[in-house]
Amino acid sequence: MTITVTRDVFRLAQVFTISRGSRSEAQVLTVRVSRDGATGRGECVPYARYGETLESVEAQIAALPETLDRTTLGNLLPAGAARNAVDCALWDLEAKRAGKRVWQLAGLPAPGPEITAYTLSLDTPEKMREQAGANAHRPLLKIKLGTPDDMPRLEAVRAGAPEAKIIVDANEGWSTEIYADLAPHLARLGVALVEQPLPADADEALAGMKRPVPVCADESCHDRASLAGLKGKYDVVNIKLDKTGGLTEALALREAARAAGYGIMVGCMIGSSLAMAPAVLVAQGARIVDLDGPLLLAEDRDHALRYDAAGVHPSDAALWG
Asked: Where in the sequence numbering do the catalytic residues fall?
């Protein structure tokens, strides 16, 4: 078995801004695992918020042994971007060698399309209203917020897209005071969910606060080990493969979270269709699906995922799985 890693850059359709900063491109790592003439692929997006860089993730992958399977991988690497790309590549390799699809190997029902959110970048209220108006035809919009001055932005987006379902992502950018002030207005404006309103290391305050709309754990939830610390604070968990460390743990987290009574959201970093493809399997039947990464790109991989009025469709085998 050989494992190779390459860096790929995908231009964004427009500059994308969240409370932590802006970007004009997506820098990803592509992992290829080859054995007996077959090659499986996976993609990850190292995330500085979790102490990851392109270099550190490459080093983690380079240190892996040549003999590897998904079980041993889980013992060798922690949850995170490196394990995600390798785990998904191993799933893809196994499917190619078996002549089956990954959903069949995993014992899952045949997947179908899922409606996905479309994310509006953080900007001035006026420009966010323009963004909302341009995408008002979409059934689900996600708003990037996370500043002390978010109320005008929220009002502007609702005015620009009066019929769309809205979810809000604060990216840990609010204080308890800001969240308490905004929470009643979230309900008034028909927001369906608010994602990670407080910093992960300061979210204990949520246990004593009213939650007029469901609150989703993102930075506070990585894998199954995170679930015990979420009780009483969150209603929904956001499963991202770059946090769980791959499809294997993502599927296990989904089942454990459901058993614990949490709603399921499936999200993504900004990456290509190759990164979204395994997440589509996890997203089946989820309460909220946020797999719009390729929609934010100016360019994508060959055999890209199909997006239409029915949502994001499962991948062709030529792409992944």
From this structure: 144, 240
